[in-house]
Specification:
Two copies of one chain form a homodimer. Chain A is of the alpha+beta class. Chain A has a single domain (about 5-170), classed as Endonuclease I-creI. In chain A, about 45% of the residues lie in helices and about 15% in strands. Chain A has six helices and four strands; from the N terminus they run H-E-E-H-E-E-H-H-H-H. In chain A, a hairpin with a 7-residue loop joins strand 3 and strand 4. In chain A, helix 3 crosses helix 4 and helix 4 packs antiparallel against helix 5 (about 140-150). The radius of gyration of chain A is 19 Å and the shape is elongated. Chain A starts with 17 loop residues before the first helix and ends in a 10-residue tail after the last helix. The interface between A and B is medium-sized, with 28 and 28 residues.
Chain lengths: ~180, ~180
């Protein structure tokens, strides 16, 4: 039995082996988890925007013990109230890029989400690109942005708006080629 | 690899062993599943009401392959559109009591839900009670009703309303003792 979690949950309620617990987790995350990339305006950066990856899992308050289990298994992240639904909803959130790169992504490459596989793949490519510093060049930044829009188009700004705003900022000296 | 599901999903996307897939399923169900007992008016029954257990798992249309996986693993149930959200939401539904009793309940006794353990326990007790025919006596029917209300009070009728309607139907000849 997994006595290592006994301060969080009665071990008799858990799968008997760590590996089984990992498959439980990928099933749970396939339902309730989210690999998201937000694009935020931030004036003090080179292109005026940041690409911000976040992994989170949402639960009603009564499910807190499972979020604590995730935090222990991944050994990173934090549990917070969901903004706007503070009284009822909790989230397990990992947004520190080093932890996403070193802990979250390798886990889900090994224990593959089924429903969220496509979403996870874009997420992993973007995080890996950021880790390599691809966002520091204009071409690299645009490529990562386009990938983020392939992952989801449900965003406050269109890709065209952001590319235009970058173009204006960087100036006419650098030519911005648009992807297909 | 689990080639037995290859008509549903690329086996390389699945856990490598059946047992691992079962832990994935309990994680998914802990998030997206529901063990529910509905209480429905039905005039042509002895007490005028039926106790109707249903297990279902909800998914967006894109998640259909996982519902097909569940149907194959449990070897029962059906996949339908969710009433009112036919265009976007699917449900895997098991409502045939024999299948709940013989397939669904034993599975989740072995692969325990963590978040939904309490809900599952009430569900299992009610299904087992129905299988034993406890609902055929007035006392047994009331006990099962009370259990259903312990599982959830979010219902169209209050327990008191239903007990009163049964009392009127059965008549003054049988005394209806109320539970604590």
């Amino acid at each position: 039995m997994l006595y290592e979690f006994k301060d969080i949950i009665d071990p008799s309620m858990l799968p008997s082996r760590r590996k089984y617990l990992h498959y439980y987790i990928v099933g749970l995350v396939d339902g309730e988890g989210c690999f998201s990339i937000s694009i935020k305006k931030q004036e003090d950066t080179r292109f005026g925007w940041v690409i911000d990856p976040v992994f989170h899992v949402t639960q009603k308050k009564e499910g807190e013990q499972v979020l604590r289990l995730l935090k222990r298994v991944f050994n990173c992240g934090r549990i917070t109230s969901k903004p706007g639904q503070e009284d009822t909803i909790l989230q397990y959130v990992v947004d520190y890029r080093k932890h996403l790169f070193e802990r979250i992504i390798p886990f889900f490459k090994k224990y593959k989400p089924i429903l969220k596989w496509r979403e996870f793949q874009y997420f992993a490519e973007i995080v890996e690109g950021l880790e390599k510093g691809e966002h520091r060049s204009l071409e690299g930044f645009k490529k990562l942005l386009e990938k983020a829009y392939q992952l989801s188009e449900d965003r406050r700004h269109t890709l065209e708006e952001i590319l235009r705003s970058i173009e204006e900022r960087v100036g006419a000296s650098e030519t911005i080629r648009r992807g297909p």
